[in-house]
Design the sequence.
């Protein structure tokens, strides 16, 4: 009988093990495939998209990055800004805005408490925006350009660069923004407020006088021709005019807008009566000239704060600033007091920073205007401000309590022989430590940055405006329905007349 080849059946005990091995191998291949695929679709984020990265607080560094890296990558966004406007356009926009408001009113049980604020940013011609930023950037090294009082023009522009910080944040892609209180919209009917991105300070200081005035007139016409402006006469428009000399030739024609100011200046030297007031406009802090002294810095500097009272700046000023000369005469040579003449150049920056970080109190008298950048330099340096400026208005005072971080003295008391030093030496050491601790907490509210930070000055702008939004809409709608015989504004005389009439009833 022939031998037969006998093939044994495969062992059943090894089959499950083999299948399991093959399955794991296949899963490993799939995992590797999807990992490489995901990396190719989602490359490592750039420093800009890393929201945990340290924010940039230097205006020069931020502007350079904005102009050369960020702005060229921004893709054009849909926009309905128009150049030729008819009355029909204004009527149609008003109707569309009414419909949007109705949807929000009937659809949101908590309206008008409705964050975020919706802001429409005009896409103005480049000569009003990017060209002015490039003008500043390309001429920055020309340090011989000084103001009449000796301060470097470009440094002065930096101090008033609030228009750059707000605009750069508003137009950044949402993926790069941190603020939740404001969102940019691209249709006018969706907006609560309208932002005018014109750099008034740069144009004033870096352009020839007649050229600047001509540009101001162009801006005026361009903005006031827009249907949204004509609908509200500018009451819901935001105009940055942070230097009191800027935009003077035409701003009377835009007095209904919300102005972003360094101060109210009730003396009338810089703003005409009826142009600015707290119910309409917003005070914004200057951009600081010194580096932030954080909690560790303030703690480490305690033993070095051997100066009782420090001041560095121009010693002779006009108008309300005459108090400086009187204070110099009163305080010069006093024990524990340092008073220095100086400007805002690079050397002045280092001297001011060192002086503030080695002092307990920093004197803040009025200058040509009631406010100055010195106040905010003191705050971020951990030096308790001593404010001798009777007409001063402060940023975000609806949110912040300045009594926790500053001392307020009247001008008449400050110049009395011996009064100010006696007052400061009488401050309880526990109160000093508490105020220094509060300065550390408050400093973040005065540091402009990119990206804009929650509770930073950009954020507080929108929180303040949120509280005024209903009043802005009230005056806008009222202006649309009043007839010729109506009082357009109820003045104090009007109110007094009404009270008198009531008293005789």
Sequence:
């Amino acid at each position: 009988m022939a031998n037969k080849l006998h093939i044994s059946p495969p062992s059943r005990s090894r089959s499950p093990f083999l299948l399991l091995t093959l399955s794991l191998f296949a899963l490993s291949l799939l995992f590797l495939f999807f990992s490489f695929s995901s990396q190719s679709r989602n490359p490592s984020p750039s420093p800009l998209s890393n929201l945990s990265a340290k924010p940039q607080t230097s205006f020069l560094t931020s502007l350079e990055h904005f102009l050369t890296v960020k702005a060229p990558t921004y893709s054009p966004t849909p926009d309905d800004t128009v150049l030729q406007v008819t009355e029909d356009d204004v009527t149609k926009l008003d109707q569309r805005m009414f419909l949007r408001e109705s949807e929000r009113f009937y659809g949101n049980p908590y309206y008008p408490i409705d964050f975020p604020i919706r802001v429409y940013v005009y896409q103005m011609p480049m000569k009003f925006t990017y060209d002015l930023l490039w003008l500043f950037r390309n001429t920055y090294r020309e340090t011989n350009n000084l103001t009449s009082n000796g301060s470097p023009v470009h440094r002065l522009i930096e101090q008033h660069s609030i228009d750059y910080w707000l605009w750069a944040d508003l137009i950044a892609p949402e993926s790069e923004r941190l603020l939740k209180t404001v969102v940019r919209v691209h249709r006018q009917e969706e907006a609560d407020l309208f932002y005018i991105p014109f750099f008034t300070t740069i144009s004033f200081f870096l352009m020839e006088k007649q050229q600047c005035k001509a540009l101001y007139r162009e801006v005026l016409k361009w903005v006031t021709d827009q249907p949204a402006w004509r609908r509200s006469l500018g009451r819901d428009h935001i105009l940055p005019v942070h230097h009191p000399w800027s935009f003077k030739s035409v701003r009377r024609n835009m007095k209904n807008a919300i102005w972003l100011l360094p101060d109210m200046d009730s003396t009338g030297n810089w703003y005409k009566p009826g142009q600015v007031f707290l119910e309409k406009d917003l005070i914004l802090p200057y951009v600081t000239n010194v580096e932030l002294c954080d909690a560790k810095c303030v703690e480490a500097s305690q033993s070095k704060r051997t100066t009782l009272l420090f001041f560095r700046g121009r010693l002779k000023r006009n108008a309300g600033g005459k108090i400086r000369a009187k204070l110099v005469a009163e305080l010069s040579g006093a024990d524990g007091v340092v008073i220095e003449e100086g400007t805002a150049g690079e050397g002045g920056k280092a001297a001011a920073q060192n002086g503030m970080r080695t002092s307990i109190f920093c004197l803040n008298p009025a200058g040509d205007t009631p406010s100055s950048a010195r106040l905010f330099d003191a705050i971020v340096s951990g030096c308790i401000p001593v404010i001798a400026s009777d007409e001063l208005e402060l940023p975000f005072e609806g949110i912040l309590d300045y009594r926790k971080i500053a001392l307020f003295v009247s001008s008449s008391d400050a110049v009395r022989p011996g009064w100010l030093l006696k007052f400061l030496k009488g401050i309880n050491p526990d109160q000093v430590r508490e105020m220094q601790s509060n300065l550390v907490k408050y400093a973040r509210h005065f540091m402009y940055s990119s990206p804009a930070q929650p509770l930073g000055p950009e954020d507080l702008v929108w929180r303040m405006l949120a509280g005024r939004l209903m009043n802005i809409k009230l005056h806008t709608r009222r202006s649309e329905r009043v007839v010729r015989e109506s009082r357009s504004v109820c003045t104090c005389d009007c109110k007094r007349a009404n009270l008198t009439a009531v008293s005789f009833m």
